[in-house]
Automatic annotation (TrEMBL):
<keyword id="KW-0949">S-adenosyl-L-methionine</keyword>
<keyword id="KW-0808">Transferase</keyword>
<feature type="domain" description="Radical SAM core">
    <location>
        <begin position="130"/>
        <end position="365"/>
    </location>
</feature>
<dbReference type="GO" id="GO:0035598">
    <property type="term" value="F:tRNA (N(6)-L-threonylcarbamoyladenosine(37)-C(2))-methylthiotransferase activity"/>
</dbReference>
<feature type="domain" description="MTTase N-terminal">
    <location>
        <begin position="3"/>
        <end position="112"/>
    </location>
</feature>
<dbReference type="InterPro" id="IPR013848">
    <property type="entry name" value="Methylthiotransferase_N"/>
</dbReference>
<protein>
    <submittedName>
        <fullName>RNA modification enzyme, MiaB family</fullName>
    </submittedName>
</protein>
<dbReference type="InterPro" id="IPR007197">
    <property type="entry name" value="rSAM"/>
</dbReference>
<dbReference type="InterPro" id="IPR005839">
    <property type="entry name" value="Methylthiotransferase"/>
</dbReference>
<dbReference type="GO" id="GO:0046872">
    <property type="term" value="F:metal ion binding"/>
</dbReference>
<dbReference type="InterPro" id="IPR058240">
    <property type="entry name" value="rSAM_sf"/>
</dbReference>
<dbReference type="InterPro" id="IPR038135">
    <property type="entry name" value="Methylthiotransferase_N_sf"/>
</dbReference>
<keyword id="KW-0411">Iron-sulfur</keyword>
<dbReference type="InterPro" id="IPR020612">
    <property type="entry name" value="Methylthiotransferase_CS"/>
</dbReference>
<dbReference type="Pfam" id="PF00919">
    <property type="entry name" value="UPF0004"/>
</dbReference>
<dbReference type="GO" id="GO:0051539">
    <property type="term" value="F:4 iron, 4 sulfur cluster binding"/>
</dbReference>
<keyword id="KW-0004">4Fe-4S</keyword>
Length: 423
């Protein structure tokens, strides 16, 4: 009888990719992926990026441990790496396995089962990923060598490391064999990707080289990059995207965190707004229709009204099409947590709302500029897809799921969704 395992993901795209890998390992061992109330074991991939994320982790672990039948709960991920004893103490049926590649073995070991061997022919995955996502991700990089004063993730993830480009190609081809039309390349510090291959003349592969290599070695419809740091957006990268004729999505998520140099300095960020502006100008000079996304923190310790307004104005000038706005979250063990002039939570909430309102306006304005243009759209749900620029698109509901379809954008709906016609 197959063992029923439920999967819960908290946090970033990298976590989702890692959970897919765990799911595949479990499937190969003869397990089935089921809902939480049917599970013998529940795997939770945790997140420590903010205090709120960590609180959600504890809540999710407690809830899972109290499910009928007291299933085994296996916690992994960043919180498991940082606070293993605390998680394990939440309930007697909770175990912690910080090493993600050992989670599947640990689940069956704790349940007292021997793994069954399931061949590739017998392994049925109805979508490009075991968890049903249409646009699978491939983790090509992990860890981070930066030391931002607000961040604890580098402690959980360790130093930067990159995946051999030949393994990247293999994983892209595997995703394609399951019907994936778009593959997302992910990492904790994606732009730091660097691999030296001694058997290929000691060639050094950086991110632009990897993109060219994957495009050459596969027929993948579209590659997408997850978030990048501003210093890693350079002329070579942008030229590769522009020359790909849409096979690399015309979208760059360039982390900002603040549009004020004084705040960036306190954050320990490795750039200032001048470099960021140059990165954006470089991207738009090669591809005028490229869409830009970013992350932004408001209420960082010491952020004055003047600094916030400076950050707000810089964001307005950049014209982002997608903004993730976060209120500063104090992380014990980081320099920022004990920094002076902590910002009042009410002030943070007001600033976050103002910045999100700006982000919504810029996204709608960016969508309007696309009317009459064309792009390829991945159909994710009946009648709904994602454009190369990461806009939601309303499409003919009769179009097959997972298709990559050339579309013309005809209008923008009030909610910012583009309405499109198949070419």
């Amino acid at each position: 009888m197959a063992h029923g395992i439920a999967l819960i993901n908290l946090g970033c795209r990298v976590n989702r990719v890692e959970l897919d890998l765990m799911a595949e390992s479990l499937l190969r061992m003869g397990c089935h992926i089921v809902e939480e109330d049917e599970a013998q074991a529940i795997v939770i991939n945790t997140c420590a990026v903010t205090a709120e994320a960590e609180a959600k982790t504890r809540k999710a672990v407690r809830k899972a441990a109290l499910m009928p039948g007291a299933p085994l709960v296996v916690a992994t991920g960043c919180v498991a790496s940082l606070f293993a004893e605390e998680l394990a103490s939440l309930a007697p049926n909770v175990v912690v396995e910080a090493e993600k590649d050992k989670v599947a073995d640990r689940v069956l070991e704790e349940l007292g089962f021997a793994p069954e061997s399931v061949s590739d022919d017998g392994l049925v995955i109805s979508k490009p990923t075991p968890t049903g996502r249409t646009r699978p991700g491939i983790k090509i990089q992990d860890g981070c060598d930066n030391r931002c004063t607000f961040c604890i993730v580098w402690k959980a993830r360790g130093a930067g490391k990159s995946l051999d480009p030949r393994k990247v190609v293999s994983q892209v081809k595997d995703a394609m064999s399951r019907g994936a039309q778009e593959v997302v390349l992910t990492g904790i510090n994606l732009g730091s990707y660097k691999v030296q291959l001694e058997d290929e003349g000691e060639k050094i592969f950086r991110l632009p080289d990897l993109l060219e290599y994957v495009l050459e070695k596969t027929e993948v419809g579209r590659l997408r990059l997850s978030s990048l740091e501003p210093p890693d957006v350079n002329a070579r990268l942008v030229k590769v995207i522009a020359a790909s004729n849409g096979r690399v999505a015309p979208f760059l998520h360039i982390c900002l965190q603040s549009g004020c140099d004084a705040t960036l300095a306190r954050m320990g960020r490795v750039y200032r707004t001048e470099l960021y502006r140059k990165a954006v100008e470089e991207a738009r000079s090669e591809l005028s229709t490229i869409a830009l996304g970013t992350d932004l923190i408001v209420g960082f310790p010491g952020e004055t009204d003047k600094e916030f307004e400076e950050s707000y104005e810089f964001c307005r000038q950049m014209g982002f099409s997608k903004m993730h706005v976060f209120r500063y979250s104090k992380r014990p063990g980081t320099p920022a947590a004990t920094a002076p002039n902590q910002v009042n939570p009410k002030v943070m909430a007001e600033r976050a709302k103002k910045m999100r309102d700006l982000g919504n306006k810029m996204r709608f304005d960016a969508a309007k500029k696309l009317i009459g243009t064309c792009d390829n759209v991945v159909v994710q749900y009946p009648g709904k897809g994602i454009s190369g620029g990461l806009f939601d698109v309303q499409v003919d509901p009769t179009i097959e799921l997972d298709e990559l379809v050339a579309m013309r954008f005809d209008e923008v709906l009030p909610n910012g969704t583009l309405k499109a016609t198949r070419l």
